[in-house]
C-alpha cells in the first residue's frame, strides 16, 4: 500500500498540515515504519538517483493530489505554489509520453477540517470535497483524462475510526475519542456521498464530448500563463535544422491562439472546457476471502467478509444500497441514503480500481455479541491463515501479506460477476523487498504468478 502524496518542496513552499501527521507523531502507532522516511515521494526518484540513460518504460503513472496542498484549510484560499507543482508534474508526464492517472484523496484530510467539524464524521465535508475535486477537474482536466476520487476509502473508515491505528486514531476507548460501533459507518457514508458528488460535478461540468484535442487544450492552457507568451514544450524545436534529422520533408504546426489573444483561455474555460471527455472511478482495496471449509456457515462467513470489505462501497455505488448482510447486522447503526442520494450514488463510476495483494481464509466464529462492539466484530468471522497447518500461501516480507496468486483470479472474477462486469484497473499489487535484495527472486515470482492469474482471467473473458 503506497504512502500519501508529497513532493520535493512540500515543506519549503509552505507546509500545510494534514490529519495523517497525528499518526506519525504517535510513537507506537507505526512501529513498522521508518518515521524518517514516512513521507518520501516521487520527488526523490529524480534524475540523479539512476544511471545516465536509465528508463522505466512506463506508459502510465498514478499519483495522488494532496487536498491541503491545494486548499491549506480544506476550503477557501488557494496555495498556488502547490497548484503549480501538479501543473509541472502533469505537463512533464505528457511530454515524456506517460498518461497521468490522478487520484484526489489518499488518507490526507486537511487538518483544519478535522478541527472544524471532525472531518469525515460530518456531512459538511461532502460539499468541501466536491469543491476541491471541481477545482482539480477545471485546472488539470484538459490534460488528465483518468481520475480516481479516493484510494482505499475503507482503510480510512476501518483503521481510522474502528481500531484507531490510522489517523485520526478514533475508536471506542481510544485516546482521541470515538465509537467503533457507529463512526466507521458514518464515515463510509460520507465518503460514498463525497465520491458521488465529485463524480456528479465531473459528469455535468467537464466530462462531455471532446472539443479539439488534448494537445490543443494543453497549448491553450499553457501559452497564456505568462502574458500570452509562456514557455512551450515545443520551444525546443525553434532551431529548424533539427527537423532535418527526422528526415521530414514537410511539417504541420499549430498557431497558439492564446499567444495572439491571451483571452482565449477565458473563452475556452467558459464555453468548451465542459468537453474534457475523461473518465472517473474509485480505488478499492480487496483481500480475497476464501471459505475455511465447505460448510454452509463458513461459506456464509466468507461472503459476509466480502460484503463488509469491498461490498461496503461497491454495492451502493453499483446498486444504490448497502449489501443485505450489512443491513441485517448493523441495522439502525447504518446510515440510509435518501431517494435523491440513491440517484447520485448509483452508477457513479466509469471504472473500478482494485488494489489486490493477498487472501485469507474465513471461518464462521459461531458467536454473535448481543451488544455491538465494532465494525470488525460485525463481520462475525474468524480469520484463518492455514488449513491443517498448511499456510494459505508463502509468507511475504510484510507480516500481513501471504502470496496467494489464485486469490487475484478470484477477486477480479468476483467483481466482474457481481457488479455488472465493470472495467477494472488493477491499481495496486506488490510485495516489499529487502533493502539489500538485488536478486529478489521472491518478489519476481510474486509478480509473475499474480500476473499469470490476471492474464488467465482476461483470456477467459475473451472467449
From TrEMBL:
A Pfam family matched in the record: Glyco_hydro_1
Keyword Cell membrane applies: no
Gene3D superfamilies with a match to the protein in the record: Glycosidases
Keywords tagged on the record: Hydrolase
GO biological process, one term: carbohydrate metabolic process
GO MF term (any one): beta-glucosidase activity
Coiled-coil residue spans: none
Keyword field contains Amino-acid biosynthesis: no
PANTHER family in the record: BETA-GLUCOSIDASE 44, GLYCOSYL HYDROLASE
Family that this chain belongs to: Belongs to the glycosyl hydrolase 1 family.
Protein name: Glycosyl hydrolase family 1
Amino acid at each position: 500500500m503506497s504512502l500519501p502524496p508529497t513532493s520535493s518542496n512540500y515543506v519549503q513552499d509552505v507546509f500545510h498540515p494534514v490529519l495523517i501527521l497525528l499518526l506519525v507523531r504517535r510513537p507506537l502507532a507505526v512501529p513498522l515504519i521508518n518515521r524518517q522516511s514516512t513521507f518520501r515521494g516521487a520527488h526523490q526518484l529524480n534524475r540523479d538517483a539512476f544511471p545516465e540513460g536509465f528508463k522505466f518504460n512506463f506508459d502510465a503513472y498514478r499519483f495522488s493530489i494532496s487536498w491541503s496542498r491545494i486548499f491549506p484549510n480544506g476550503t477557501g484560499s488557494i496555495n498556488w505554489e502547490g497548484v503549480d507543482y501538479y501543473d509541472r508534474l502533469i505537463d512533464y508526464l505528457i511530454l515524456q509520453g506517460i498518461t497521468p492517472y490522478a487520484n484526489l484523496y489518499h488518507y490526507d484530510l486537511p487538518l483544519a477540517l478535522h478541527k472544524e467539524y471532525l472531518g469525515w464524521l460530518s456531512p459538511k465535508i461532502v460539499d468541501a470535497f466536491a469543491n476541491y475535486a471541481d477545482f482539480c477537474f477545471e485546472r488539470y482536466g484538459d490534460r488528465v483524462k483518468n481520475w480516481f476520487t479516493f484510494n482505499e476509502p475503507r482503510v480510512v473508515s476501518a483503521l481510522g475510526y474502528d481500531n484507531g491505528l490510522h489517523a485520526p486514531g478514533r475508536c471506542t476507548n481510544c485516546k482521541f475519542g470515538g465509537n467503533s460501533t457507529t463512526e466507521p459507518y458514518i464515515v463510509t457514508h460520507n465518503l460514498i456521498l463525497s465520491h458521488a458528488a465529485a463524480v456528479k460535478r465531473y459528469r455535468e461540468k467537464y466530462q462531455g464530448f471532446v472539443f479539439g484535442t488534448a494537445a490543443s487544450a494543453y497549448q491553450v492552457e499553457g501559452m497564456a500563463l505568462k502574458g500570452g507568451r509562456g514557455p512551450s514544450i515545443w520551444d525546443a524545436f525553434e532551431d529548424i535544422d533539427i527537423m532535418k534529422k527526422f528526415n521530414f520533408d514537410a511539417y504541420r504546426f499549430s498557431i497558439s491562439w492564446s499567444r495572439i489573444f491571451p483571452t482565449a483561455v477565458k473563452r475556452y474555460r467558459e464555453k468548451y472546457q465542459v468537453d474534457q471527455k475523461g473518465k472517473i472511478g474509485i480505488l478499492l482495496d480487496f483481500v480475497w476471502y476464501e471459505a475455511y471449509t465447505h460448510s454452509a456457515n463458513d461459506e456464509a462467513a466468507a461472503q459476509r467478509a466480502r460484503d463488509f470489505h469491498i461490498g461496503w462501497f461497491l454495492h451502493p455505488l453499483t446498486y444504490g444500497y448497502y449489501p443485505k448482510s450489512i443491513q441485517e447486522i448493523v441495522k439502525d447503526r447504518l446510515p440510509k441514503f435518501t431517494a435523491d442520494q440513491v440517484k447520485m450514488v448509483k452508477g457513479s463510476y466509469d471504472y473500478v480500481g482494485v488494489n489486490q495483494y493477498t487472501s485469507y481464509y474465513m471461518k464462521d466464529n459461531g458467536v454473535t455479541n448481543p451488544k455491538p462492539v465494532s465494525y470488525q466484530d460485525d463481520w462475525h468471522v474468524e480469520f484463518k491463515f492455514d488449513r491443517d497447518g498448511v499456510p494459505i500461501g508463502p509468507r511475504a516480507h510484510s507480516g500481513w501479506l501471504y502470496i496467494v496468486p489464485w486469490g487475484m483470479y478470484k477477486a477480479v472474477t468476483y467483481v466482474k460477476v457481481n457488479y455488472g462486469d465493470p472495467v477494472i484497473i488493477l491499481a495496486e499489487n506488490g510485495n516489499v523487498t529487502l533493502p539489500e535484495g538485488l536478486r529478489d527472486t521472491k518478489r519476481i515470482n510474486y509478480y509473475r504468478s499474480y500476473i499469470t492469474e490476471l492474464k488467465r482471467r482476461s483470456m477467459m473473458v475473451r472467449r
